[in-house]
Write a sequence for this structure.
């Protein structure tokens, strides 16, 4: 895990997206969080020592989100500083490699990790756990991961937001995929 900044100060800012309000957080290294207000695991990992301040990383993230929500693929990256286990960070690195407008399955991510680690098998559920604990939604695109049957399961911000994000990127979602949303995803 990357070292925390020397004074451990976390900076926060709010962003009004077309899908609802977003809380952004950063430290001196990069963006540490991007949560839809009220989502599962909202503000998890945010320290008590936070300052509401528009630092450059947060301004950069807002500019990225403005472009993204206008329906275009941003042509620059935001410095990221996600906190997590080595396994989680490996999964999140794979998420960052999923092209804009594309989806992959949990099983496909597990297969990529198996190949990288020289393993014969890995549980897609373990991958799902790491995907679900991604603290930097949208920019680390966990919304691009779907179930093996194409179902839109497992998005902390809610499956309706996942659907809207995929549609914004031009991903065609079949009515069957929408119907396959697990009842678990609709329970808060």
């Amino acid at each position: 895990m990357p070292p925390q900044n020397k004074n451990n100060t976390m900076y926060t800012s709010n962003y009004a997206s077309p899908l609802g309000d977003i809380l952004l957080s950063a430290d001196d290294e990069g963006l540490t969080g991007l949560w839809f207000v009220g989502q599962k695991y909202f503000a998890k990992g945010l320290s008590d020592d936070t300052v509401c301040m528009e630092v450059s990383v947060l301004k950069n993230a807002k500019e990225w989100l403005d472009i993204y929500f206008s329906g275009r693929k941003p042509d620059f990256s935001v410095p990221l500083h996600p906190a997590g286990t080595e396994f989680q960070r490996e999964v999140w690195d794979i998420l960052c490699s999923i092209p804009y407008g594309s989806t992959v399955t949990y099983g496909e991510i597990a297969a990529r990790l198996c190949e990288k680690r020289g393993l014969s098998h890995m549980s897609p559920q373990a991958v799902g756990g790491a995907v679900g604990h991604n603290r930097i939604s949208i920019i680390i695109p966990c919304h691009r991961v779907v179930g093996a049957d194409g179902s839109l399961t497992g998005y902390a911000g809610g499956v309706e937001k996942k659907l809207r994000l995929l549609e914004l990127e031009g991903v065609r979602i079949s009515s069957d995929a929408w119907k396959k949303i697990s009842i678990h995803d609709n329970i808060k």
